[in-house]
Amino acid sequence: MHTPTDTLTRFYTAFAALDADAMGSCYSLTATFDDPVFSLQGQHDIAGMWHMLCAAASGQGRQDWRLDFSQLQADAHTGRAHWEAHYRFSVSQRLVHNIVEADFTFTPEGLIASHRDAFDFWRWSRQALGLGGWMLGWAPFFQRQVSQQASANLARYLAKNR
Q: What residue intervals traverse the membrane (predicted)?
């Protein structure tokens, strides 16, 4: 059994090292994950997302990858963290600096029960997608399109790798 603070430290330390196995082990079997792109239920799908994203970051060259995390706060039930990822987006090869605020709930065993990441999608899309993201990244239909494409990519990844 781990405290929620231990879980968050273990999660973000693993994330910085692109260790998706260790990240996935921080979630309960029935965990949920939400951010502007993904909405997932269950440890299997959440861990699969982290595997896919970590593989993409590793594949672009670790020289472009950096994760900084701070402001970890947790009690027995809830937690928060601030994190910033610097990476090369695999689709466009553009450098991205994503700034994220995360909120968590925990199981009695100290595992993540729910995880919600919030970031400025338009800011992210301008960096990751260039002119198209600048022109359309603010629009809800564009965010849905990106989310649908990411979900399809995850489904293909899970079918191939699990």
A: none
* Residue for token pair 């199981």: 107
DSSP string, 18-64: T-HHHHHTTEEEEEEEE-SS-EEESHHHHHHHHHHHHHHHHHT-GGG
Strands (E) across the chain are located at: 27-34, 39-41, 66-74, 78-88, 95-106, 112-118
Domain 4-161 has CATH 3.10.450.50: yes
pLDDT in tens, 112-149: 999 999 999 999 999 988 878 788 878 788 788 989 99
Distances (CA, A) of 90 to 24, 27, 63, 83, 85: 22, 26, 14, 20, 14
pLDDT tens figures, 85-119 = 999 888 888 899 999 999 999 999 999 999 999 99
